[in-house]
Amino acid sequence: MHHVSSSLLAIASLVTFARSSLGLAIPDTAPTDTYTSTQPGTGYIEDPRGWKFSGGMLTVPRSRIAATSVGQLAFFAGGLLENGTYTDTVDIYNKQTNKWSVAHLSSGRSSIGAGSIAGRYAIFAGGLDDSFKPMSIVDVFDAETSKWSTIDLRTPRGSPQIINLGSTTAIVGGLSGDLQYLSNAVDYVDAGLDITNATLQLRYPQFGVAISDKAGGVGLFTAGYQNNDPGNRFNDFEASNQTTVFSITSNSSASFVSDQKFPYPRWGAGGAAANGVFAVGGGHVFGDTSTGSQTTVVDRVDIYSAATGQWSGRPLELSVPRDYPLVQAVGDYIVFVSGTDQSKDFDILDTRSGAFVDNLNHKPALYTLRSDAAATTIDNCMFIVAGGLVYQGRNATASVEMFNACK
């Protein structure tokens, strides 16, 4: 077990799942005022070597950005500026028009949970203010009306995790700001923006990885770390094997059960799902602290099947170890990138075959290595990486890299 102070873990937790500007077009500064499409994607290019690259720039360099998409729009909200302050800026990319616009959150903050609800709303939940105080505010963008509004979490939290179950979205856990430190709160938000609350039934409070398969109405909250001594000023944090499975019941309400143990507990993993296949990859483990804390970044990928309700006994391997990787679903693929200083290449898992695609030609690959960046996918076929830290974490960047797999 590893005894770490709450203040140190608060800083460590702000690192998001996850480096020179490309000199590309600056986004428009006019606010977004149109919603272009709610239609599903038209398919994607099967061969990743044929995915088309383009670039852009955020309005301001920053890290710890909250990213999500709804319809044809991708959102990059809030984050940490190079001067150490938080921003309320929301950069919005419209895939249909290939243009950028800018909006603003109700307040500047970082460590925001970002997601979507029912294919209509983009949400930016909770976060930490400049004094590291957890917030309850949820900024909501309605893609049908292009209007912003706010609702409130029942429990203020920094870094809440978002699980999109289709008609309902679960806002799970996060940093509580008290001696419990990690929150077990769950806020369900439905398509009418009504909120109900629940409490995770876990032995220990957990800060985990949230993964959504909205098409299947299933989600996971797993891995990460847990607090073995909640309420103590100096909490006892340890990699967690707890797994909670969220699902939509026959009467369209959401429920969860905590019964599946994560097979290889570790910190800093990332995950995504496609076709009912949930992949959790990368992260790090600690060695024997009696001889000095030794951190080992791992290349392991664990697979959970929604069909069987079980973790696979045969893990896969990334091409390189990755800590806090960016992970997104693109069509039938699950893409792992960043999280390492060793490679710009993508690791691309084909959920149909259960194997990684060969990437011997280094395509696709990042142009700029970065950490603490944001990623989202539009229309299930355009993968976007934005912002983050470059040059071994010394500078924030505004560069955006877009990999278009859309036909």
TrEMBL record:
Membrane-spanning ranges: none
Signal peptide (UniProt feature, chain positions): 1-23
Domain of life: Eukaryota
Alphabetized UniProt keyword annotations: Kelch repeat, Repeat, Signal
PANTHER family: KELCH PROTEIN (PTHR24412), RING FINGER DOMAIN AND KELCH REPEAT-CONTAINING PROTEIN DDB_G0271372 (PTHR24412:SF489)
This protein's name: Galactose oxidase
Protein's organism: Coemansia interrupta
